Amino acid sequence: MIFRLIKHYSQIRYAKYFAIIYSLFLIGLILSVVFEDELFSKNDVTELVEDLNFKLNDDFELIKNESFSGIGDYYHTFILEISDNDKNRLINEIKSSPNFMNDSIYSTRKLVYPDRHKGKKTVWNYQNKTSYVREYFQPNGEGSAPTNRIISLDKISNELRFDDIDD
Predict the structure, then answer these.
(1) How far apart are CA 36 and CA 106, in angstroms?
(2) 17 φ, ψ (degrees, to nearest 5)
(3) What's the pTM?
(4) Interval 103-145: pLDDT, tens
(5) Residue 128 to residue 117: CA distance in whole angstroms
(6) What does the domain layout of the chain look like in residue ranges?
(7) CA distance 161 to 153
(8) What is the separation of C-alpha 16 from the centre of its chain, rounded to a whole number of angstroms?
(9) Residue 9 burial by CB count (10 A; 0-12/13-18/19+): exposed, middle or buried?
């Protein structure tokens, strides 16, 4: 449509340039969506983990990265291999949190989620049979999906699992 307007006013050369630039923009946008998982970097990992007040001091390896989006839903999961030092420090941070629930308390209690649209962010720190967990829930207002992010530290291996669930 814009191409036709520019062409209509006898600026065919500008119309061609505009069409090329616009096409490259659309191709770039489509490629960034299609290859989102492949373009995910260690900097992205660090930023997401730090959003939950965790800091990885040592080097880590990105083992798995997956994301899925649908109408109104977004799921993102990645798994890291972290150092023993980072694992132990992060577990201590979870266990020393004032709201920490050990396995016996957590298994008999259901997490109470606040209103999906209103309220303040809620953070839970708990231990289940397989991992130590920090879970973050943030309502984002009426008409928007709440943010639910979960970091799990496996008790046996040095795996850190991050889940971002917006539905």
Answers:
(1) 35
(2) -60, -45
(3) 0.71
(4) 756 555 566 666 767 778 888 899 988 999 998 888 878 877 7
(5) 28
(6) 1-34, 37-166
(7) 7
(8) 40
(9) exposed
